[in-house]
Amino acid sequence: MPALQDRLAAELTAARKAQDKALTLLLGTIIADTRNREIELKRPLTDDDVIEVLRKGVKKRKESVTAYEQAGRTELAAAEAAEVVALERYLPAMASEDEVRDAVRAAVAAGATSVGPVMGAVMPRFKGRADGGMINRVVREELGKAE
User: Fold this and answer.
1) pTM across the whole model
2) CATH architecture of residue range(s) 97-146
3) Which of 38, 107, 113, 143 is in Cβ range 3.0-4.6 Å of 121 for a Cys bridge?
């Protein structure tokens, strides 16, 4: 079992002992999601697979926050936002925009001249550590300067 799955299980046990119902429910849901992913892939999960499940959970909750805020349900939005913060603790540190910009500049210097090839060169390096939208924005900014 990957270290991250072990950590989630240990924190679930601690949350149960502390009678933290919200965290117990959240971690229980995420662990169930990881088990479902394991069944789907028909193999044991790696830490990268677990991180992917966590990122999907964060994304889903961020979308819920937006929907609740638009509907004027601030208490539910606040609860979802708290879950986002709790889940982000388990994710690796995000890459800074400067790191991404440096990688994009290197890809452009290596001869990539359009968005597709630059994204293809940069995305694998930041898989799981940077938002694709932010990378795309930086690529477009840098390619705009290069012209």
Assistant:
1) 0.71
2) Orthogonal Bundle (1.10)
3) 107
